[in-house]
Every structure is written in C-alpha cells, then in structure tokens.
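Review form for a predicted model. The reviewer records the input and the model, then writes brief findings.
Reviewer: anonymous (R2)
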Amino acid sequence: LALLLAVLAPAAARAEELGAAERCEAAAKRRLAGFVVAVSGAATAESPICGRVPRQLVCGELVFEGDRVRTAASARVDLLLKGLRAEVGGGSEVRLGITADGAPDVEVAQGHVRMIDGRTDAEGPPYRLATPDLSTLVRGAGSEAAVEGDSASASSRVCGRGSPIDVTRLGGVE
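Model under review:
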C-alpha cells in the first residue's frame, strides 16, 4: 500500500498541475475587460479559471471578464473599462463582466464602486452596474453602487450622478 501511494501521489500532483496549466491557458482566451490605471494599497484580482490564485494589481495590469477584484480596507484601485472609469474603494469586492453588447458589467459584492462614463450618450451601449439585489443599465452618466454589512444583513444602494437612472430590484418587486 505504501508503495502504491508513493507512486500515485506524484502522479496526482502532476495531474493537478496539468489541470491548472490548462485552466490558465483557457484564461488567456478570456475577453479583456480593461486595465488598471491607478492603485493605492493592496488590490488583487482572481480568475475563476486559474484556480482563484490572487494576483497583485499594479498600474497597467490587464483585467478580464470573470475576474474578482478585491481591495484591502485602506486601498483603492481605478480601472479603465472600455471608456469608463471604475473607482473601486477600500474593502471592496467586485466581479468584472462584459454585457452581450460588449459594454462593462460590474457587480459589487461588497464595498463601493463609482463609475465615471466619459463617453457621450451616442457612444456605445449602456454599461451594467449591480449589487446582489439591485441592477441598472446606464449610459452617459456617472453612477455609484455600494454594498454594506455582512451577507445576512447587507444593504445595497445604486445612485445616478446628474440624471435619474432606472434601478431594478432583483428577485423581487421593483
């Protein structure tokens, strides 16, 4: 039995390494969501494909569809996402996506994000900003989303800057 374990354990470890390598090769084929334009403090991104190993974010770092961006309590990271600036505040976790129309899709799981849309109303499709229970599509205006509290008692808010936005309550009454 010991001999069998001695032979199988390295093979299992090698299989796991190969699986991780294949997942990371698949990650190279993911769609680009944007890149880091400013960072202060500790900020990381994790890919659901590459085994969720966090990578430290630095200026110029690329971020991809599906990445989860996390910031330490006193950190901040600014991302440029297809013409929009996303300012991710301290103690935040956001998931980056891309809508069917190719616009940024930002889901705030915890903390705060501010979106600044430098495009004119005629440029491109609306971006999506969401929290666990609220969602909105916005074009040509800035917006903010925040999720506060733990998962049992979290509260969400989504606000438009300069003009009203339509917000949909997910899983319930609008």
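Findings: The first helix runs from residue 2 to 27.
Further findings: Residues 11-21 have pLDDT under 50 and may be disordered.
Recommendation: see findings above.
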